[in-house]
Amino acid sequence: MGQEEPAETMPFGATAEWFRNSLERCPLGVAIIRERPFTRLFANQACARLFGAASPHEFISQDIDNSFVDKADVERTRAALQRGEDIVDMECRRYRKDGSITWMVSNSSKTEFDGQQAHIFWMHDISERKLAELQTHNQLQELQKRKKQLEEQAEALSKSTMSLSIAHRELEKLNREKDSFLSIVAHDLRSPFTGLLGATELLARRSDKLSPDDVADYAVSLHETTKNVHDFLEGLLDWAQLHKGLVPFDPTPYPVAETIGLCISELSALSSNKDISVESFCHARRQVVADKSMITKVCRNLLSNAIKFTASGGRIEIHLADDGPDVTVAIYDTGVGLSDTAVDNLFQLDKKTSTPGTEGEAGAGMGLILCKEMIARHGGRITVFSQPGHGSTFQFWLPAA
Question: Which residues contact 107 (CB under 8 A, 6 or more apart)?
Fold first, then answer.
């Protein structure tokens, strides 16, 4: 038996024709590229169709570089071939003959063709896969966008829920304050009206038996009680109008010492009756930007309070001071002073803080609350420093001119 002839080790030896036919029938696009110069030596029909060429011959004659959309892919391919490396699953965009762009994946291995060093490439179209990847990517981005929107909506909902909860608690607090306030109003009105009813009933039934002096005393008492009720109702009306924004507000530059001097003059009879000295240490030219009518009411109220709660022979001082962009007005007295609890409740609408003065003077109970509202309308604040038996200092801040 004769010995078999050994097979050719190179693809294109004795079996070259058979191998060429196999490549022709391969469903993948196959091309053989020479290293130097960088040109095509062979392409099958599937490769020609892949690039939209009419025939393999037409495809082979086309420039390789111009078939790449991204020039970086050309350089990457050249560099790999020059180093003798195989291309493995390289994905890149390629131009078809009609100018359309398609995605392809390429693999290569080194070979020899017609006695020349070359590389055989297998290529196939992955445009559908890339489109699916793009759609998946877009869908993922859309999902991430939706997720972010949902997270933002959830956060907004959480904040809204928290705001509603805070608003609900605030509303409950306001309702409690309203109920307490109405109770205080009813009490403060009932007490003087009880006295009025008693006095008027006595006058109606026994006026013929009362002396002129008794009638005069009753008349004075009725007048004082009626005035206190009137002042209380005026305070309620002012407070309601302030909250509704119905009180005119016209801040203009003016010397606040002028207002303080006017209030001292208006209340001089009250201070003289109790032998209380009232001194103003206010610079005549220091100006504030404020509503003159409102600040007059504030100064009058604070000064009358200081007189009411200062014993006979006491002292009241009024000072002005610069405090950055503001001017501070401080009213100091040597009166009875206030406890910490009384100070805490002083500006609370639902707390009863009105007490008689050192000589039994009645208080309307709304004055300090109105002062706080009016100062707040100017963007300022009011504070109290006090100790029982050591007097009080009321301070408020107004914007300087």
Answer: 86, 87, 88, 89, 90, 121, 122
Helices (H), 267-291: 268-273
**CA angle 121–126–129, rounded 5-degree value:** 155
Cis peptide before 37 (omega within 30 of 0): yes
Residues of the chain within CATH 3.30.450.20 domain(s) are 16-125
Rounded Cα distance, 323 and 336, in Å: 28
Name the amino acid, one letter, at 213. D
| Token reading at 343 | 């100070």
- Summarised one tens digit per residue, pLDDT across range 111-144 is 888 788 899 999 999 999 999 999 999 999 999 9
Q: Which residues pair with 120 in a beta bridge?
A: 32, 109
Domain covering 16-125 in this structure, CATH number: 3.30.450.20
Residue intervals of the chain classified under CATH 3.30.565.10 are: 248-399
The CATH classification number of 248-399 equals 3.30.565.10
Nearest Cα to 333, choosing from 307, 300, 365?
307
pLDDT in tens, 201-235: 877 787 777 788 887 887 887 877 787 677 777 77
pTM of structure: 0.53
For residue 300, the one-letter residue type is: R
Report CA dihedral (81, 84, 89, 91) to the nearest 10 degrees. -20
